[in-house]
Amino acid sequence: MQEWRDEAAEIVNELLADGSNPEADYEIEHHFACQDFDRLEKAAVDLFKAGFEVTDAEEMELDDGATIFCFDATIECKLNVDAIVADIAKMLPILEKYGVDYDGWGTYFQD
Questions:
Q1: Which of 14, 22, 27, 34 lies 20 to 30 A from 82 at CA?
Q2: pLDDT, averaged in runs of 10, over the chain (111 residues)
Q3: How far apart are CA 70 and CA 103, in angstroms?
């Protein structure tokens, strides 16, 4: 979890240093991928039940020709490292249960 905390702190600090509004609500997008669509879908259902909005899965072809499926789970919150890391901690057991990869998170600059 320390790696995710460090990454979250770096992203938050960069956004704030660029002038993003520290008081705004942010849509935090967590990214997931898996080669097995059924497992990905089950993880999406569990994440929805855990309170996250989930996007439709998309199929992507990797550079080596392999196919993966991916989706995002989003939640609105303040740009707060502890809140973001708490959400990641809530997600990881679900992802481990289905063998789905967590591919980090992102958000958008807010004036």
A1: 34
A2: 91 93 95 95 96 95 92 94 95 96 93 85
A3: 10
- Only one residue has tokens 């890391």, namely 85
DSSP β-ladder status, 58-61 and 67-78? antiparallel
Burial group, residue 9, by CB count within 10 angstroms (0-12, 13-18, 19+): middle
Residue 75 is predicted with a pLDDT of: 95
Number of domains in the chain: 1
Kindly report the pTM of this predicted structure. Answer: 0.90
| CATH number of the domain where residue 53 is located | 3.30.70.970
Q: Which of 58, 53, 88 is nearest to 70 (CA)?
A: 58
